Amino acid sequence: MWAVYKKEVEEKDVAVGDSFLLREEDFHHLVVVCRLKEKDEFLLLNGRNLRLTLEIQDVGKKKGVSVIKKKEVLLREDCFVDLLVGTPKKETQEIIIKSAVEMGVRSLFFCESDYSAKKMTLKDHRLESLIQSAMVQSNNPFAPHISYVKKEEIDFSSYDEVLFFSEKKKRESSLSEDKKIKKTLIVIGPEGGHSQEEISFYEEMNHAQYIHLPTPILKVETAVIAALGGYFFKKM
Fold first, then answer.
1. Where are the alpha helices (H) located in the chain, listed in sequence order?
2. Predicted confidence (pLDDT) per residue in 123-141, tens digit
3. Which of 51, 143, 146, 222 lies 20 to 30 Å from 89, alpha-carbon distance?
4. CATH code for 3-73?
């Protein structure tokens, strides 16, 4: 279903039957681009826990009026996946952010590593724009938490499992099918891969699994999609 993202809308401030004014930007997206008409429905998401179903009731030249038909206050599942990626170039970060939103990642960490890109931080307004675009496309009601961190700032012990993906095949391992595992962290290196010191760091974790995909070397953004796809396939 077509959607709009409104971070500022609070759950306590809206109710079924309330009118909602479609201002110029949303009007253009829904009516001009998506070609919705009176009586058509769309979603409003605030990125935290709110999903509203609205019906367009009046369409003017540059704005319209809609009415809330359904209100859902959602809870995140207690089973989730976070993503830790060695900071890549900005254009690669943008692709990863969109993929993370579409695939329901809870938190995305861009981590400073031995071979990661330096000083490649996206500005807040660009992050917000990417999140909004991907949420509208995917209808994901929850926006991920995105941050730039150092490895020492991550509490690895808070996860049930850490899936360390490497381009080098060193030992046999596979994704766990243990249904009791609730909190997973997927670790993927930057374009230059992981250093030997970083490989040793993850190998020494008792709850870490060393994963090597039987493919040629992947781009970071491709590795992210492959890793998340494998994770969700095992959870089916």
1. 24-27, 90-102, 124-138, 196-203, 220-235
2. 999 999 999 999 999 999 9
3. 143
4. 2.40.240.20
Q: Beta partners for 188?
A: 85
pLDDT in tens, 91-115: 999 999 999 999 999 999 999 988 8
Q: In this structure, are residues 234 and 108 in contact, taking their beta carbons and an 8 Å threshold?
A: no
Return the CATH number of the domain spanning residue range 80-235: 3.40.1280.10
- Contact criterion met (CB below 8 Å) for 104 and 140: yes
Rounded CA gap, 78 and 57, in Å?
A: 38
Distance CA 211, CA 60 (A): 55
Kindly provide the residue ranges of all beta strands, DSSP E only, lying in 74-216, ordered along the sequence. 80-86, 107-112, 145-150, 161-165, 183-188, 208-211
> What is the pTM assigned to this prediction?
0.88
Q: Which two tokens stand for residue 216?
A: 């040629």
The set of residues, in sequence order, having a beta carbon less than 8 Å from that of 2 and lying 6+ positions away, is: 30, 34, 36, 42, 43, 136
How many other CB atoms sit within 10 Å of the CB of residue 75?
A: 7
6, with CB counted inside 10 A (0-12, 13-18, 19+), is middle
Gyration radius (Cα) of the chain, Å? 20
Whether 49 and 93 have beta carbons less than 8 Å apart is answered as no
**Local confidence band at 143 (pLDDT 50, 70, 90 cut-offs):** very high
Residue type, 225: I
